[in-house]
Amino acid sequence: MAESEAPTPSPRMILEEVRIIFENRPGGDIVYPLTSPEEIEKAAKSPYILKEGCHYKIRVTFRVQHDIISGLTSQTSTFRKGLRVAKDQQMLGSFAPQSKLHEVTFPRHGWEEAPSGMLSRGSYTSRHKFADDDSVVHAEWEMAFDIKSEW
C-alpha cells in the first residue's frame, strides 16, 4: 500500500435483509437478502407483486458496527415511469453497535395499503436511503414492484 493511501474504514451500517410483510398473502412474506452488491442488484431487477388494496409493511434488518449512528433517518422515493409519485421521510433514532441485529418496520403502527384501481396498476421502483444527522449516507438500495389485480 502506498503511503498516500489510507485504509478504507468498514461501514458502520451493514444491511442484512428487507422483508415485505403481508397481512394475508398466499405464500407469506417476501424476503430479499441485501448482504452483497449482487443481492442488492437482484432486488432492483426482480419485482415483487403487490395485489391492489393489500395491506403490507416493510421491515429492514441491519447491523451497526464500530460506532453509534445518531439521528438515523429513512428516505424513500417511489417512481413510476421515471416520475416520482411518492416521497416519505421518517426519523428512526440512534443505533449503537451490538451483536443483535437492529430492525425497523414501516409503518410502525398499522399497515400500508397498496393503491387500487386500474390507473394504479403497473411497474414501480422505490429508492431507499438511510442517512444520519450529519447527512452521511449509510445505506442505499432500490427495489422494483408491480401492482396487479391478483397475486
From TrEMBL:
The entry's keywords: Cytoplasm, GTPase activation
Asked if Cell membrane is a keyword of the record, the answer is no
- Which biological processes are named by the entry's GO terms? Rho protein signal transduction
Q: Annotated Gene Ontology MF terms? A: GTPase activator activity; Rho GDP-dissociation inhibitor activity
Matches recorded under Gene3D superfamilies: Coagulation Factor XIII, subunit A, domain 1
| Subcellular localization(s) per the UniProt record | Cytoplasm
Question: By its UniProt entry, which SUPFAM superfamilies does this protein fall under?
Answer: E set domains (SSF81296)
Query: To which protein family does this belong?
Result: Belongs to the Rho GDI family.
Give the protein's recorded name.
Rho GDP dissociation inhibitor
